[in-house]
Amino acid sequence: MGKFRDAVDAKALRFAVGFPVVLAGAFVFCAHLLRPSLPEPLAVSWTDDGGASFAPFTAYAWGGALIIVAAGWLVLSQAVPVSRPVVMRRIMMGAGLFLCLFVTSVLAAGLVGQSGLADARESRVDVTVLALGSGAALSLGVIMGFVFKADRRWSPDDDRAFELAIARELDPDLARDSIRLWVHARSSVFVMIAVAVLFPAALIVIALPWLGAFLAALAVVAAAFLCARVKADRSGLRVLVAGILPVMDVPAAAISAASASEVKAADYGGWGYRNHSGTAAMLVSSGPAVVVRKTDGHSLAVSGGSPASAARLAEVLTRVAARAHGGASGVEQDS
């Protein structure tokens, strides 16, 4: 919920949701005021000879209200996300206001043009109401586009970025003690998965759609487990399968040593996440990896991408572990 609030402009959201509803309610109320002087049924389209298509009063009033709400929500909602460009949000806010008022003007012009008539086939759209309403809608839409404050607001993300900037200014080595990288299997492996699973699934889906969909989903899951997000900083090492599922979380103080080396996935049980006999591994392929020894005697291995990134990851882990052990020692001596 917090992420949603940070991603939208609350004031714009309230206006985008509330204004079309209020305007539609006002239209229905005014339509009921005119009902005694309106014919039944009402014309909803016109030709040069008069009304051509007809609908009951209730359908005209409430159907028009639904059109106002749908049109308003569709356009005004585009001005709500704060990630959108400022100019785009202003244009969408002005366009949404104009569209709501314009649709209301067209519906009102149809009602006023039928007021006082016994037969809707003799009616015409009231041009005066349509012209005045359209002009007001256009001018108010332009004004809204200029006065709407779409500048990005200060958010909790800005607070965190500000705190991080201060921390980096006070501690220049902080950036050196942090690394983020994605590791994944070779492209040929994903091609192999597609050939081995997706192609048969495309044939099976003709006879058994559910089985074909299941095989396709299985292929996606298998491919996801061959990708991982590796994070290392002063708090320790974290590994997330597919960037979502956390499988390793090792505090810096629990790391004894880290070294980059060439490993074979078969030595650790194969590709993907493995945890057996005190040895954990998240390997997306054989090749460059970082082997971490923990203070409790256990060890783990993580794919490092390229030899350079693996060396960089090992260097960061070694440095943050030394810092954590030095801090712990300092605390014990003080006590």
Question: Total strand count, please?
Answer: 11
Give the strand order of the largest sheet, numbering strands 1, 2, ... along the chain. 7-10-11-9-8
The percent range for helix content is 40-55%
Which class of secondary structure composition applies to the elements?
Answer: alpha+beta
Write down the secondary-structure element order. Answer: HHEEHHHHEHHEEEEEEEEH
What does this structure look like?
The protein has 335 residues and is an alpha+beta fold. It has 2 domains: 2-147, no CATH class; 171-334, no CATH class. It is 54% helix and 21% strand. It has a 5-stranded mixed beta sheet, with helices on one face. Strands 3-4-5-6 form a 4-stranded antiparallel beta sheet, covered by helices on one side. Strand 8 and strand 9 (279-283) form a beta hairpin. Helix 3 (57-76) packs antiparallel against helix 4 and helix 7 runs antiparallel to helix 8 (209-224). The protein is elongated. Mean pLDDT is 83; it is low at 328-335.
